[in-house]
Amino acid sequence: MDTRTALLDSAERAARQRGFDAFSYADLARDVGIRKASIHHHFPVKADLAFGLIERYCARFADALRDIDSTSQTGAEKLRAYHQTYRSALADGSQLCLCVSMSAGRDSFAEPALEQLNQFHEDSTAWLTQVIQQGITDGSVSGFSAPEADAQATLALMEGAQLMARAASSLTPFDKATEVFLGKLA
Amino acid sequence: MDTRTALLDSAERAARQRGFDAFSYADLARDVGIRKASIHHHFPVKADLAFGLIERYCARFADALRDIDSTSQTGAEKLRAYHQTYRSALADGSQLCLCVSMSAGRDSFAEPALEQLNQFHEDSTAWLTQVIQQGITDGSVSGFSAPEADAQATLALMEGAQLMARAASSLTPFDKATEVFLGKLA
DNA sequence: GTCTATAGACTGATAGAC
DNA sequence: GTCTATCAGTCTATAGAC
After folding, report:
1. Nearest-angstrom CA–CA distance, A134 and A72
2. Of the candidates A145, A152, A141, which has an alpha carbon nearest to the alpha carbon of residue A184?
């Protein structure tokens, strides 16, 4: 595999489990099997790694949303798939999605990375707004009435539920916190 | 003021703005006006500081909930006050509440601190469950039907909304994400 | 593109004087 | 309870050989 990709994979795992500031180039080097200094060839400073991580994550997430759009029919189906994305990202409660992890540690990041992070939030709520609207129209959801506000609330719910699950090292808090949300999907 | 208290104050500010691992004994020493080594007299190792921080926070939060109980009447009033607590903790969007901040960086903490953190989550949802139940009974809220699940969802919403606001350095995402919640309170 | 070697700064923590 | 002095360990980052 591509060394750059292997580094991003290792860094993503570490960032999601322990936070971006809690892993070092030494950890990455050990994990990937090269020397610390070699990492600087791919990511000259750690900020470059942060940006690379968020950039790849945003692209992947956008793909995932497009995939949901093309394989699910009703608004409710799409929202269930969206919920499942956040749920599986937790694994057994040992890691956050990259976005939550980086939102939490945002102080380490420079402008370009922060911009990507906020772009992600905007893209997510835009997609959610449209999908909730669709669900209202096709009658597959109930309990939503203001798609834009509902979208923001949904994103906050997913991120907060992840945080609680991570704190407890268990999926249970995530499932409990999103139970009412799932109940709105026919 | 008590040196120990001054240290806790400084550490809490730093933890909420930048995360628990992102400030050092050197930062604290500069801020409080003593030498690094002196801090170890009050908190021998940094884990002691983490525990002291969470311990004080839990006690304060419990006080705040008791205060809400004694000054607010209806369930809706209490939930509005609860929401306001999380909103003002954000300041201008520059800091998280300590619980969100520490949930995010939980990997640094030892068992006693983690236990307190989970206790906080349990106490919060227990209080919310009871208040939502009251709101249903007194007719001051609408849109809630399963108090316990609603309580978990409410806590996740507050924490997630804080995270989004912090990422954007603005109160706006918090307000948007909690708009629907506030609409349920008569 | 990867290596060895090293720089320079900072970390939490300790010993022991006052 | 606070200080000076210092430790061993870590961190990101760089220079230069191969």
Report:
1. 12
2. A141
**Average pLDDT of span B32-44:** 98
Strand D closer than 7 Å to the CB of A44? yes
**pLDDT one-digit tens code per residue, A88-100:** 999 999 999 999 9
Q: Phi then psi for A45, rounded to 5 degrees? A: -125, 165
Q: Do A146 and B179 touch (CB under 8 A)?
A: yes
CB-closest option in A108, A153, A163 to B177? A153
3-state secondary structure of B105: coil
What does the mean pLDDT of chain B come to? 96
Residues of A in contact with B168 (CB under 8 A): 118, 121
Among the partner-chain residues A21, A117, A179, the one whose CB lies closest to the CB of B22 is: A21
B178 lies within 8 A of chain A by CB: yes
**Which of A18, A117, A177 has its CB closest to that of B153?**
A177
* pLDDT computed for residue A104 by the predictor: 85
pLDDT at B106: 81
* Angle in degrees, 0-180, between the axes of helices A46-71 and A111-138, rounded to the nearest 10: 10
Q: Which residues in chain B are contacts of A22 at CB distance < 8 A? A: 21, 105, 107-108
> What CA–CA distance (Å, rounded) separates B52 from B31?
18
Task: Say whether pTM exceeds 0.90.
Answer: yes
Residue pair A179/B149 in contact (Cβ under 8 Å)? The answer is yes
CA of A117 to C1' of C1 (A): 31
Q: What is the DSSP letter of A93?
A: T
- The yes-or-no verdict on residue B129 having pLDDT over 90 is yes
Q: What is the pLDDT of residue A128?
A: 98
Per-residue pLDDT, averaged over B163-172, amounts to: 96
> Where do the domains of chain B lie?
47-183
The pLDDT of residue A108 is 81
Beta-carbon separation of A155 and B177 below 8 A: yes
The dihedral through the CA atoms of B144, B128, A96, B24 has a sign that is positive
Query: Nearest-CA neighbor of B182 among B76, B67, B96, B69?
Result: B76
Cβ neighbourhood burial of B99 (10 Å; 0-12, 13-18, 19+):
buried
Q: Which fold has domain B47-183?
A: Tetracycline Repressor; domain 2 (1.10.357)
Q: Does A66 contact chain B (CB < 8 Å)?
A: no
